[in-house]
Specification:
The complex is a heterodimer of chains A (355) and B (520).
Chain A: H1 3-30, H2 34-43, H3 49-74, H4 82-99, H5 106-133, H6 137-160, H7 190-207, H8 209-219, H9 221-227, H10 231-255, H11 270-280, H12 288-308, H13 315-328, H14 334-354
Helix pairs in contact in A: 1-2, 1-13, 2-12, 3-7, 3-8, 3-10, 3-11, 3-12, 4-5, 4-6, 4-10, 4-11, 5-6, 5-10, 7-8, 8-9, 8-10, 11-12
Chain B: H1 3-6, E1 8-18, E2 24-34, E3 38-43, H2 49-56, E4 64-69, E5 72-74, H3 79-84, E6 87-90, H4 102-107, E7 113-114, E8 118-119, H5 121-134, H6 150-163, E9 168-172, H7 180-195, E10 199-204, H8 207-213, E11 216-221, E12 224-230, H9 236-244, E13 262-272, E14 278-288, E15 292-296, H10 303-311, E16 317-323, E17 326-327, H11 333-338, E18 341-344, H12 348-352, H13 359-363, H14 381-394, H15 411-423, E19 429-433, H16 441-456, E20 460-464, H17 468-474, E21 477-482, E22 485-490, H18 498-505
Classes of the chains: A mainly alpha (355), B alpha/beta (520).
Chain lengths: 355, 520
């Protein structure tokens, strides 16, 4: 590991530490039982099997969307449609489960594959618009998420709705449910798929030809073009692969034991969370499980804390906010980094004089 | 003489500035300004002029060195701080609000107030008129900035700085955007300012302008000051020698060129830039294997447009370009590269590399699809690594390992990475645009020797360079580009003198009949 990378890692931990410390101060200010609250926040998730299970369950969708965003952001395609892609993936999975009547084993596989396809097509829309009309994908992908939300709601209400429940689909058949891995928790087979996807994302970005093209374009588009790389291909492929992963994520989430019906009538926010994951993982899919674990742990801890003490769940958003601010703030600790670099540069100047 | 007698207003001593990517832009620069002088800051692109001025104007903070203002050590923390200390800067790209009037632009940020809240427009206009009159600037301050020509915009910028009380005025390449008439007018104004006791720093690389207007000149080269000279005592030749360091005379043992058939054929090529200006004007030439065709010329005479068209970066041109008999009109950049064309780009940081990726990743961007280095999907990482190690060794790239980010290397080493990448494919045609610009002497010589070796091996080389010495010592044929045409072509380079070449470069001379441009 070179100095720059080591410094980044140090800065990351330092950011987390500062964010936690600030949140502790806030807890001390607002709570009548601050020590209990903080202890619950930190150790709550480890108290029993069910809480530990909750952490792992919450991790799974974050790994998917986080990996998808890592791939798109690596190519400098700031596509935020993972949110909508995830949502659409859930709907497609519900539709397959309810309408096709496939046997157990086959049903989730088909559902996941079709959801992947839907995600790819969905996330490709901003890409195609960028290629054809030059519209920035940031804006178009942001707006298109609402299209996904209302389209999914419309389809659910008209084709899948269970009239006895109202705003939810019929109950999903048992044949479509993903198997549970650990008894007494909701940890499901989606975890394995999520880890596989993170690994795939890493191999794709760092070991394949296409991944190399993506990263080169992401770092310097002029250089990529000059080298003979097709930028159009990179724009399209990066966003489609991101969409595939988002779609899979949505379907896995819906088919997990956590949900019994398609009842998503608001965006779930996993697409936004993905940006946090991508930032923490420094755009490397291999680190998304770690980043997802951290965020999931924090959120589970906060929700336990909110249940048993007088501190509300929102504290977690403060912590998240501070971490992201510090991690993305180029200037944070830049003086220290600059001194390090200046020292190296001066040393090599001296070396040059000797040689 | 003591400081008092000479009235030194500003001293910058031993300034060192290292950027956060590890690039040392100023290694050890000192400059001294006398009250009431026009002081030229002279140097090539990348010599560190702008960095030094950014340090003075508070945009960058120096890593070492001191700044003395009127004999007092001071630190300048921000542009606001600089302005309050009487330092003003006129940037090359104007910082004006087009939809506001001249007066509004001048008072922006330091508005006269009515009742502490409202802008006192009457006062603003009269203050602007007053300052324009004081310095003899003939400007209607009620006109909107978007409606006035470039020359006047620049005057507004100068007035803006004067209005804020600037005693020291930094002008960053002020004549780059001006017509000759506007330039003359600017010089008259600058002389008046000087006579009023203002001190002016004039950043430029146009030697004749410096001769015309400046009292003293500090010359910079690759992050160091090469000394300060009385302009009347130094010849332009000496200035240019100090600036580009041509005292290192290059002589290469060159074998007779062994022409090996036409590889590049250009016919009636015309290229317009994005603004519709004709930059390459009906150009035709041939280039054979085993020879180096040098193209000299003042920058901006169509060299970039020519090269972008040859390499596929620009596809909107008229005329025909053949590489090894293939018309490349419809070819993509990749397809052109597949005709074994290598390209050393003009600006290594904008298109030659990705600073945040490591050396290995920068070495294979043009050949990762080679079956040697990748299968249909996966990269052959082991082989790529092994080859990187070889290339780093062969091209003497100074680094810790191939995992080091390219942005952390020095300019010369970055250039070597680019050259290693482009040369390692075994090219049949090398298009080299300023291959040694801003590169240290050792690296430059290394790159030149490589170019010669390729030529001896039968490769065709098109060399565009602003470095006359380089063009002279390497070229088998030499063309001078002026306003999109070849103003002169010389088949025997030894017969041309530098003075003659200069006259062709400035368009003072033009060959009516040219021989040896086309082989047919």
């Amino acid at each position: 590991m070179n100095n720059a990378k080591r410094f980044d890692l140090f800065r990351m931990f330092f950011s987390v530490l500062i964010a936690l410390l600030i949140s502790f101060v806030i807890i001390f200010l607002v709570s009548s039982e601050p020590v209990t609250a903080i202890t619950t926040l930190i150790t709550g998730p480890l108290k029993n099997k069910r809480s530990m299970g909750n952490v792992i369950e919450a991790m799974i969708p974050l790994i998917f969307t986080g990996t998808g965003v890592c791939i798109m952001f690596s190519a400098n395609q700031i596509n935020l449609a993972t949110e909508g892609g995830f949502h659409l993936g859930g709907l497609v999975a519900a539709a397959v489960a309810l309408k096709l009547g496939l046997p157990a084993g086959l049903s989730p596989v088909v559902a996941i594959c079709l959801a992947a396809l839907a995600g790819a097509v969905f996330c490709a829309i901003p890409a195609v618009m960028k290629i054809k009309t030059g519209s920035p994908e940031l804006v178009s992908s942001l707006m298109i998420n609402y299209l996904s939300l209302w389209l999914c709601t419309f389809i659910m209400m008209h084709f899948l709705q269970d009239p006895s429940v109202g705003s939810a689909s019929y109950k999903l058949p048992a044949a479509s449910e993903l198997p549970t891995l650990v008894k007494g928790t909701n940890i499901h087979a989606g975890l394995l798929l999520a880890l596989l996807v993170a690994l795939f994302g890493y191999v794709f970005l760092f070991k394949t030809r296409t991944g190399y093209e993506l990263r080169l374009t992401g770092e310097n588009e002029n250089f990529a073009r000059y080298s003979g790389i097709s930028i159009v291909k990179v724009i399209l492929i990066s966003q489609m692969v991101g969409g595939v992963i988002a779609g899979i994520g949505g379907s896995v989430e819906l088919l997990s034991p956590i949900y019994t019906r398609f009842s998503w009538i608001a965006l779930l926010g996993y697409g936004w969370d993905a940006i946090i994951i991508c930032t923490l993982a420094k755009k490397n899919p291999l680190y998304t499980p770690l980043a997802a674990l951290f965020l999931a742990y924090l959120r589970t801890g906060a929700s336990i804390m909110a249940r048993y003490t007088d501190v509300t769940l929102e504290i977690v958003q403060i912590i998240q906010g501070i971490i992201i601010l510090l991690v993305v703030a180029e200037q944070f600790l830049s003086g220290m980094k600059h001194r390090m670099i200046a020292k190296e540069a001066k040393a090599s100047l001296k070396e040059g004089e000797v040689a | 003489m003591t400081c008092l007698e000479k009235n030194i207003v500003l001293q910058m001593n031993h300034i060192m500035k290292i950027y956060s990517n590890g690039v040392v832009a100023n290694e050890d620069v000192s400059i001294e300004l006398e009250k009431g002088e026009i002081h030229a800051l002279l140097g090539e692109n990348g010599a560190g002029k702008s960095t030094l001025m950014k340090v003075l104007f508070g945009i960058e903070s120096p890593d070492e060195g001191q700044i003395l203002l009127n004999g007092q050590e001071t630190s300048i923390r921000s542009p606001q701080d600089a302005i309050s200390k009487g330092i003003g800067m006129v940037h090359q790209h104007f910082m004006l609000v087009p939809s506001l009037t001249v007066a509004e632009n001048i008072i922006l940020g330091v508005e006269p107030r009515k009742k502490g809240v409202f802008i006192d427009m009457e006062k603003a206009v009269s203050a602007a008129e007053e300052i324009a009159q004081k310095y003899n600037f003939d400007i209607d301050v009620r006109t909107k900035v978007e409606e006035i020509p470039v020359g006047i915009k620049q005057k507004v910028e100068i007035l803006k700085a004067l209005y804020r009380g600037a005693d020291i005025l930094i002008l960053d390449e002020p004549t780059a955007v001006l017509t000759p008439q506007e330039t003359d007018e600017l010089f008259v104004q600058l002389e008046k300012l000087r006579d009023n006791g203002h001190t002016i720093i004039f950043i430029s690389h146009k030697l004749d302008e410096i001769k015309k207007i400046c009292n003293r000149a500090t010359i910079m080269r690759s992050g160091r000051s090469m000394g300060t000279y009385e302009v009347k005592d130094i010849s332009t030749e000496d200035m240019s020698r100090l600036m580009v360091g041509r005292d290192v005379v290059l002589t290469f043992e060159k074998e007779e060129a062994k022409p090996a058939g036409v590889i590049l054929k250009v016919r009636d090529l015309s290229v317009r830039n994005a603004q519709g200006v004709l930059k390459v004007d009906n150009l035709s030439f041939d280039l054979q294997g085993g020879e180096i065709l040098g193209i000299a010329g003042v920058e901006g005479n169509g060299q970039s447009e020519l090269i972008n068209s040859l390499t596929g970066l620009n596809k909107s041109y008229q005329g025909r370009i053949f590489v090894k008999e293939t018309d490349i009109e419809k070819s993509s950049i990749k397809e052109i590269r597949d005709l074994s064309v290598a390209h050393i780009p003009e600006d290594r940081m904008t298109s030659g590399c990705a600073g945040n990726l490591n050396i290995l990743e920068n070495l294979f961007s043009n050949q990762y699809t080679d079956p040697e280095y990748s299968g249909k999907m996966l990269l052959k990482v082991k082989r790529i690594q092994a080859r990187s190690v070889e290339l780093i060794k062969e091209y003497l790239i100074k680094c810790r390992s191939f995992r080091q980010n390219v942005g952390m290397l020095s300019g010369g080493n970055i250039q070597k990475v680019i050259v290693a990448r482009e040369f390692s494919t075994g090219p049949g045609l090398i298009i080299a645009n300023q291959p040694t610009r801003g590169v240290d002497v050792g690296a430059a010589e290394f790159i030149r020797k490589r170019l010669l070796a390729f030529r001896d091996a039968g490769c065709a080389v098109l060399l565009v360079s602003a470095d006359l010495n380089e063009v002279f010592s390497l070229s088998d044929r030499l063309a001078v580009m002026y306003k999109g045409k070849f103003s002169g072509v010389f088949t025997n380079v030894a017969d041309v003198t530098e003075e003659e070449l200069g006259q062709y470069m400035l368009g003072l001379k033009h060959q009516e009949e040219q021989e040896g441009v086309i082989y047919e």
